[in-house]
Each structure stands twice: as structure tokens, then as C-alpha cells.
Design a protein that fits this description.
- It is a single chain.
- By secondary structure, the protein is mostly helical.
- The chain has one domain.
- It contains two helices and two strands, in the order ββαα.
- A hairpin with a 2-residue loop joins strand 1 and strand 2.
- The protein is rod-shaped, with a radius of gyration of 23 Å.
- It starts with a strand and ends with a helix.
């Protein structure tokens, strides 16, 4: 065991910051996939209706 920021950490365990980096990478991968998907036609129609000025 070693002490990091007043906490005991077993040898071989990744530190919290390493875990956060890994989670961040995985989340970016998932979000990038979602961003690259096309916008459904129904959503585009709704957005166009919202952009049309009301009389």
C-alpha cells in the first residue's frame, strides 16, 4: 500500500485521475458517434417550423 493525498492505495490499482481520463475517452467516443449520426427528418421538419416567423 502507498499513501496518495492522505488515502491508502493498493499497488497496481490505477489512481483516480487515470480512471477519470479513461472514462473521459470512452465518453468522447460515444458522443462523437452520436454527433456523426444524421438528424432525423422529423426533427428537421420541427426545427424548420420553429424558424418560420409567426404572423
Amino acid at each position: 500500500m502507498r499513501v496518495v493525498d492522505n488515502r491508502s492505495v493498493a499497488k497496481g490499482q490505477p489512481q483516480q485521475s487515470e480512471i477519470q481520463v479513461q472514462i473521459g475517452r470512452q465518453l468522447r467516443t460515444v458522443y462523437d458517434d452520436v454527433l456523426n449520426q444524421p438528424i432525423p427528418d422529423r426533427f428537421m421538419e420541427l426545427l424548420q417550423k420553429l424558424d418560420t416567423p409567426k404572423k
